[in-house]
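Appendix B. Worked example

We walk through a single record from start to finish. Start with the input: the chain for Putative heavy-metal chelation domain-containing protein, Sedimenticola thiotaurini, length 328.
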Amino acid sequence: MRSSLGPLRLGRSPSRSTVSVVPVISRLVIRYMGSPCRCLSVREYSSQPPSLPVNPAMNTLQACRDLLQRLDRTLTLPAVAEILLPPREPVPGESDDFGFVVLEDGSVGPFYVSLPGVWRGVSRHREAGMESARLARRMGAPELADSALALGAWNAIGQHLMTRAGFDPLQAGATKATLPEGARIGLVGYFRPLVERLLARGHPVTVIERQPQRVPADAGVDLDTSPAALATCDRVFCTASVLINDTVDEILESCAGRVPVELIGPSASGLPDLLFARGVVAVGGLRITDVERLRQLQEAGESWGAAGSKYQLDPSCWPGVEALLQRL
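Next comes the structure step. The output line below is what the pipeline stores for this chain.
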C-alpha cells in the first residue's frame, strides 16, 4: 500500500513562473517554444541519412555520453524542472516502482527505483534547475542512485528531441515478434508479470538476476547469476536496469548476435540508436502525455499508466537521431 503523503517532488513546483511545463495533448500535437510540432511518419524521414555508426572504442554508456555532448552543443536542451518519486521506498522483490525526471518543457523520463539504495539516494538529490545533459552524463556512475537518475534525464532528453522533431513513437508501428511454441526465453532481471505470462504460454524461462533473493523459490524459472546462461535461449528480454548498472554490453556479448535481444520496460525511453547499432532488435518505452495527470495519480497512490502510453520501436520504424536533428 502506498503512503498517503503523496509523491516526493524534488524540485521547483510546476506552478511557479520559472517552470514552463507544456501540456501534452491527445496524439501529441505539441507546442514547443511557441511553435506547433506536427508528428511525422517514418516514411517522411525516408530520405534522411542513416543512424549513428558504432565506435568500437566506446562501450554503450560511453557512446551515450558522447552523443549527449553533441546534442548539448547542437541544441538548447531544457533544464530539469522536478523529480517525481514514489512516496515510499520500494521493498526490493515486492514491487517494481519508477521515478520520473520532468524537464521544463514537459518532457518526462522514467527511471527504475527498486534497485537497492536508489530511492533513498535519489530522494537526497536537488537537481531542479540543473542542465539536463549534465545530469544525464552520470549514467554508469558508481552510485546506482546517480546512474538511475541520469537514465531518467537521458530518457527525458530523448522524448524532448522526438517531440521537437515531430516524431510520435506511439504511431511508429513496430513489428511484434512471434515467439515459436516452446521457445526458451531469457530474462535479464526478474519481472514477475512477464514471467507469469510466459510460463502460462508454455515457454521455459531462464532468469539472470544478480540479486537472486528477489526471485521466489516457487517462481518456476531456471535462475542464474551469469549472463552466459543466455546463450541457450531463443530470445532475450532485458529490462533497462542494465543501463543503470552498466551491464548492457556484457549481456549483448553473451548473446553474441546469435540470440535476439529486446530492451523492455518504461525506463528504455531514450534515443535507441546506440542500442540498435549494437544488435538490440527492439526497444520499449513510455510516452507521458499528461504530466499533471501523472502527478495526480502518484499523489493518489494509483498506477500512473493513465498518464501515458507504452510503445515499441525497432530499426524498421525508427528514423534515427540524425534524421530527427535534420528536422529542427
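Two observations about the output. The chain is about 25% helix and 20% strand. Residues 185-267 form a domain with the Rossmann fold fold (CATH 3.40.50.720).
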